[in-house]
Structures are given as structure tokens and as C-alpha cells.
Task: structure prediction
Amino acid sequence: MISIKLDNVSLAYRLYEKLTLTAPDRRLGGLGGKIGRSGGKQVVQALEDVSFELKAGDRLGLVGPNGAGKTTLLKVLYGIYQPSSGIVAIEGKVDALFNINIGFRPEATGRRNIVLRGLISGWTEAEIQEKMPEIIAFSELGDFIDVPFKTYSQGMA
Result:
């Protein structure tokens, strides 16, 4: 069973540059992050008491202003950041797509790029071929799946 569960996850990280702010500062978590003190050190509270549970087939959308912690949360889910407190329980495999264009070859077709991206993600050829129809259907590219990626509009890419 594939699942992701977060229970009261918080993440605070230390500031190495001393700052005094009187208004939200986009360099430090914008509207979402809070500056405080912990153990005599200045810290940014990037996430605070985040809880949710996802099971196979569920979808999660993250919406918020710059600095709200969306990417920070994704990095916690992928294991790049360890939370300061709370529990992250993941069953199954988590893949990170922080830059969707990483690993894509402009000259290759959409179909070939699916194969390349699958290989980068550690999938076998058989897994890629099994998932190919679902990925193509999700892309809504139709016949454009077989034209070079470099010809795609921004939305198609």
C-alpha cells in the first residue's frame, strides 16, 4: 500500500546572518516564514504543525504566496530536509520533480523523453512501457507525443 502521512510536522532552520525585520521579507520565507529564536539562535519557522494523509490515487495541490513553504514541504517529503519535529511516514517510493525539464532532451520526442525520464527515475524498461499509455493520456498531447520536445509550447512542455 502506497501512502504518505505527516503528523504535526514543523521545520525551523537557523539563520547565519543576523537580521532585524519590521515587515515580511521575501528573502526569509516571505509571508509564510516567521523569524524567531531557538536556543539563542535566530531561526526561520518554515513549516509549522503540518498534518495530512494521502493514499494511492489521492492528489494534493499546494497553493500559496512566495515563501509560504510549498517547496520546503516537498523537500521534506522527498527527504532532502528533515523536520525539526513531527512524524513523516512514507510507504512506497517518492519521486521529486522540482524542475520538470531536467533530463528532457529538446531534440527527442515526447515519447522518447518519457523513456529517458523513467530511466533517470530508476524505472526498468518494462515499468516504463507499462506506464507509457497512462503517462501519454495524462499529458493530453495526443499525436504531438511523437514530435520533438523543442517544438512544444510552454503549456505542452
In short: Residues 39 and 122 are 41 Å apart (CA to CA).
